[in-house]
Design goal:
seven-stranded parallel beta sheet, 212 residues, single chain, alpha/beta, two-stranded parallel sheet, Rossmann fold, 9 strands
């Protein structure tokens, strides 16, 4: 029997991260699941370890996990400024990747976004592309980026734009192709599958996430 693994999740309070933690706790392949969060979690489970951190000092904490899952991300609405958005969506993942490399992590699985491109004229896509470039350079042996499209799933807040997008996606799914919405839980499941099947470094686009 293969030795059970250890996991670290950062961004566990988000839509994908919340599903991810629950799945990891239920997966017999993992003996421990550590969560770094900015606020306490209402989660319990055998093998769960939680720590409340100030993410401004993320790099000062030691990573002690084979598989590191990064689900960090915000919105322009929440960030309010482009500078804060860059900090959360680009700088935090980069600092985490560097800490994971120093700590000897074997795999780093990161949520990015459909259209991530270092040279994009679209601010959001460009920041995601910059994040991927920096995280890849951190040097974790296996680094995999997941690029989901619009996420479906239960949220604590009402977002009219997303509600409209999801409604259109439900009606036009076959036509939208790779742009159709994807369930956050499906993304979480795909991240774990990629880790446990030892997929190589690379990018997994939204439609490939469904297949995985």
């Amino acid at each position: 029997m293969a030795e059970r693994r250890s996991a670290l999740v950062v961004g566990a309070t988000g839509l994908i991260g919340s599903f991810l933690v629950r799945r990891l706790l239920d997966d017999p392949a993992y003996r421990t699941v550590t969560v770094w969060a900015r606020r306490p979690l209402a989660l319990h489970g055998a093998g769960l370890r939680t720590a409340t951190l100030d993410f401004e000092y993320l790099g000062s904490h030691k990573v002690e996990a084979e598989d590191v899952y990064c689900c960090l991300g915000t919105t322009i609405k929440h960030a309010r400024t482009r500078e804060v958005f860059r900090r959360v969506d680009r700088d935090y993942p980069l600092v985490l990747a560097q800490a994971a490399a120093r700590g000897g992590a074997k795999r780093l699985l990161v949520i990015s976004a459909l259209g991530a491109d270092l040279r994009s004229r679209v601010f959001y896509n460009r920041v995601k592309g910059e994040m991927e470039f920096g995280v890849r350079a951190a040097g974790v042996p296996t680094t995999i980026f997941f690029r989901p499209t619009l996420l479906a799933g239960p949220r604590d807040e009402f977002r009219i734009g997303e509600r409209i997008g999801l409604a259109v996606g439900d009606l036009l799914g076959p036509i939208l192709g790779r742009y159709r919405p994807i369930e956050a839980d499906v993304v979480a499941a795909a991240m774990i599958k990629a880790a446990l099947t030892n997929l190589p470094s690379g990018v997994i686009e939204s439609e490939e996430i469904r297949v995985l």
